[in-house]
Design brief:
globular; alpha/beta; homodimer
Chain lengths: ~270, ~270
């Protein structure tokens, strides 16, 4: 079953029409939602153990990039997929509107600072991809400038990869109808109202432009070193299952080992 | 006279045999050492003004990379060429042996953090080039790893350039004989003894390996976006003259302007 999720991984240069990618489908999971949620708890435990091993071995660096339209579920993924992991070795870097100091530097400056260290998993909640998404849609820089950034980004991620960082990138793919439901929920539910801003409606009005920009990103920046996964994300449980499984399979493929014990440890007696 | 220094700039892919580059020559300066030193004082004043303009305009970022064999004169350049500039807008980033935290990240992590902001001149005293120089000579990483770094570095500098950073790279080229004199001076002069360590002699023993590594660096990483200059550096005064002039000409070519005054400033009366 597991490897079924590989179909969501984009090959380099693969053409992408997001409308052809079903946001509701759950074809790689035989059971229902309830089974999936139970299975996710098992995956949480697996991830917890793998993360501890990663931290102990201190050889690999893991970078996970989450991108989505508003309400796509980035926060939900972080909460659900990483439930139970030790925060000492897992760090979330959220990239909001850049500060004045950040804007004074090149756009990768604030990103690179947050790159993972050995033994660390870093989750990018939004990322350098905003510099070819929101920046493009709102025309914050000229086309001449943002067009060059696809090459920069591929080179940056290639360098991270060559130097020993494993990179996984997930685009949480929701439908415009699902976004409507989720925004309405934010308006209606007093505990979610803090998440809503009228700016979200303006962004929703730019849906098609964002979709076009995302298609460009997905086509141009899915590489062997740093592949994109298009995750059907209208159903949270399925989305979580895919992402959790892909991360776990990737960590398992690294053949990590606990560092060797100090020589003679078996003879040590604690007074 | 000024443009005469352009001959020290390497074209992309230009082959380099450092033994063919005279370390003693002073052919682009008609006068003697005394005239040169007086002229440098004028250049200091020019640079001071241009740097103030750069700082006020706050549009451009300037990155100056200094590399050399030991005793090549990097510290001397910083002291002499930047004499009088306002430290608010000029920053020296010295890259020594990496810390444990730095080693836990990719090699460009600590470098990128120090990249200049708008309005700033940053001088790299050593740089990411050490990761294909000392690291190569001492085999701190495998050839497979360091060979990929030339591409990373070119892509990194291209990105900085595309995003508005002007990059100038100077290799201070001294002869092995001149290094002998300078090391001896460090041993004999009590005020310079702090600069000497017996490790310097080991490095001197690796002169040919460093030269080969530098030739590779100079051939592979001199680009339109970020050219290398090979500076004859046995004579400090000539070395300073070249570097100061190249920096000043570069700053002048940017056509910087003071920001416009606030509207109505001419009617403001201070009580």
């Amino acid at each position: 079953m597991k490897k079924a999720f590989e179909k969501y991984r984009l090959e380099p240069d693969q053409k992408v029409q997001l409308n052809d990618w079903d946001t509701l489908e759950t074809s790689a999971w035989d059971g229902g939602k309830k089974d999936a949620k139970l299975h996710l708890l098992e995956l949480n435990t697996q991830l917890e153990k793998l993360q501890e091993l990663l931290y102990a071995e201190r050889k690999q660096r893991i970078l996970i990039v989450l991108q989505a339209m508003d309400t796509g579920g980035k926060d939900g993924v972080i909460r659900s997929v990483f439930k139970g992991v030790n925060p000492s070795g897992v760090r979330v870097a959220s990239f909001k509107v850049p500060s004045a100091l950040e804007l004074d530097h090149d756009y990768l400056w604030r990103i690179h600072k947050q790159a993972p260290a050995k033994g660390e998993i870093v989750i990018f909640n939004r990322s350098h991809y905003e510099d070819v998404l929101v920046v493009r849609v709102h025309e914050l820089v000229s086309e001449k400038v943002w067009k060059k950034r696809f090459d920069h980004i591929n080179a940056f991620e290639k360098m991270l990869h060559d130097e020993g960082t494993v990179i996984l990138k997930f685009f949480l793919h929701i439908s415009k109808e699902e976004q409507k439901i989720r925004l309405q929920e934010r308006i209606d539910n007093p505990e979610k109202q803090w998440k809503f801003s009228s700016g979200d409606l303006k962004e929703r009005g730019l849906w098609d432009k964002y979709r076009d920009a995302y298609e460009d990103v997905l086509e141009k920046t899915s590489t062997k070193s740093a592949p994109w996964y298009i995750v059907p994300a209208d159903r949270n449980w399925y989305r979580n299952l895919i992402i959790s499984t892909v991360i776990i399979e990737t960590l398992e493929s690294l053949n990590m080992k606990y560092p060797a014990a100090e020589a003679g440890i078996e003879k040590v007696v604690i007074d």
